[in-house]
C-alpha cells in the first residue's frame, strides 16, 4: 500500500468498525431502547479515549490552543450530538433506508465546506471517485426494503420532515468533519478525539437533562444483559471508529475521508448477513460493486 493512501485505508477501516458497532448497538437497543444506547455511547466512549490518552500520551487530558478547543468543541456538538440526533430522529420517522439515503449527501457538503473554510481542493479524478461512491451507497441503501410495515404509506408531512432531518444530518456531518480538520492543525488525532467526544457528551447530557430523559435513560441500564453488546459497540465505534476517522481526516482530504467512512451501508452488508441472516438484494450488491469501484478510483488516483 502506497504510504500516500494510508488515510484512505484508515477511513475504510473506520467504516467497517462503525458497521460492527451498528450490529452491537442494535442488540443492546433491543433490550433497553435505541435512545438509551445513543446516550450511553458518548460518556463510555470518552472514558475509553481518556484512558488511551493516559496510556499513550502520559496525561489524562490533551493540551491544545484555545482556537483548536473551540473548533473541536463545535465539531463534537454539531457532528456527534446535533447531527446524530437528526439521524436517529429520521430513523424513527421514515426508516433507516430513507434516512441513510439522505445521509449519503454528507460527502458533497463536506467538499463544499472544506473548500470554503480550509481551502481544500480536489482533482477531477477524486471528485469522480466521491460521486461514484455516493451513487453506490445510495443504490445499496435503496436496495433495503423498509418501505413496508410501519414505514409504508407515510403521510407527506412526516415523510418531508424525516427527509429534511436526514439531510440536516448530512449537513451537520459535513460541518463537523471540516471543523475537526481545522482543530487538528496543531493536535494529534487521539487528543482531538478526546476533546470532540467530551464536548459532544456534555451537549447530550444537557439535552437529556432539559428534556427530562436523563434518569429514564440511566435507569434502563439495570438490564445487565445489554451491557456486553453496548461495551463492544462503544469500543468499536465511539472509541476506535471516531479515532480512526480523525486520523483519516488528518492524513487525507476531508471530502475523501468522509466519502470512505460513509460507506457503512456497504460495509454493514456482511455483518447483517452473518448476525441477522439478512441477505442483501441484487440492487444492494450492484451498489456495493459501484461503491467499491469509486473507492478504487480514490486509491489509484
Description:
With 301 residues, the chain is mainly α. The chain has one domain (3-300). The protein is 80% helix and 0% strand. The protein contains 13 helices and no strands. It has helices spanning 6-32, 34-57, 66-94, 96-103, 106-118, 124-142, 156-183, 189-211, 214-219, 227-251, 254-261, 264-275, 282-300. It is globular and about 45 Å long. The two termini are 13 Å apart. The mean pLDDT is 89.
List the helices and strands and how they pair.
Elements: H1 6-32, H2 34-57, H3 66-94, H4 96-103, H5 106-118, H6 124-142, H7 156-183, H8 189-211, H9 214-219, H10 227-251, H11 254-261, H12 264-275, H13 282-300
Helix pairs in contact: 1-2, 1-10, 1-11, 1-12, 2-8, 2-10, 3-4, 3-7, 3-8, 4-6, 4-7, 5-7, 5-11, 6-11, 6-13, 8-10, 10-11
List keywords for this structure.
301 residues; 80% helix; mainly alpha
Compute the number of strand runs.
0
Largest sheet: none
- Give the termini distance in whole angstroms: 13 Å
The fraction of residues assigned to DSSP E strands is under 5%
What's the short version?
The chain has 301 residues and is mostly helical. Helix content is 80%, strand content 0%. The protein has one domain.
Amino acid at each position: 500500500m502506497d504510504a500516500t493512501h494510508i488515510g484512505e485505508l484508515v477511513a475504510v477501516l473506520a467504516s467497517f468498525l462503525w458497521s460492527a458497532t451498528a450490529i452491537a448497538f442494535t442488540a443492546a437497543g433491543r433490550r433497553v431502547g435505541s435512545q438509551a444506547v445513543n446516550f450511553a455511547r458518548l460518556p463510555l466512549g470518552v472514558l475509553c479515549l481518556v484512558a488511551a490518552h493516559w496510556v499513550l500520551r502520559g496525561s489524562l487530558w490533551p493540551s491544545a490552543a484555545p482556537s483548536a478547543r473551540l473548533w473541536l468543541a463545535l465539531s463534537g456538538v454539531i457532528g456527534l450530538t446535533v447531527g446524530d440526533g437528526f439521524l436517529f430522529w429520521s430513523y424513527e420517522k421514515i426508516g433507516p433506508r430513507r434516512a441513510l439515503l439522505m445521509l449519503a449527501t454528507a460527502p458533497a457538503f463536506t467538499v463544499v465546506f472544506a473548500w470554503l473554510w480550509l481551502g481544500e481542493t480536489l482533482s477531477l479524478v477524486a471528485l469522480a471517485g466521491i460521486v461514484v461512491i455516493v451513487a453506490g451507497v445510495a443504490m445499496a441503501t435503496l436496495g433495503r426494503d423498509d418501505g413496508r410495515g410501519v414505514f409504508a404509506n407515510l403521510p407527506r408531512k412526516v415523510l418531508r420532515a424525516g427527509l429534511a432531518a436526514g439531510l440536516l444530518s448530512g449537513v451537520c456531518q459535513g460541518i463537523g468533519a471540516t471543523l475537526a480538520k481545522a482543530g487538528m492543525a496543531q493536535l494529534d488525532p487521539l487528543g482531538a478525539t478526546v476533546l470532540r467526544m467530551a464536548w459532544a457528551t456534555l451537549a447530550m447530557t444537557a439535552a437529556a437533562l432539559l428534556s427530562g430523559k436523563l434518569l429514564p435513560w440511566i435507569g434502563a441500564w439495570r438490564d445487565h444483559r445489554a451491557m456486553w453488546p453496548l461495551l463492544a459497540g462503544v469500543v468499536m465505534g465511539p472509541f476506535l471508529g471516531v479515532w480512526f476517522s480523525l486520523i483519516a481526516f488528518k492524513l487525507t482530504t476531508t471530502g475523501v475521508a468522509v466519502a470512505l467512512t460513509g460507506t457503512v451501508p456497504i460495509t454493514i452488508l456482511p455483518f447483517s448477513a452473518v448476525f441477522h441472516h439478512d441477505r442483501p438484494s441484487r440492487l444492494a450488491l450492484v451498489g456495493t460493486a459501484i461503491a467499491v469501484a469509486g473507492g478504487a478510483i480514490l486509491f489509484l488516483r
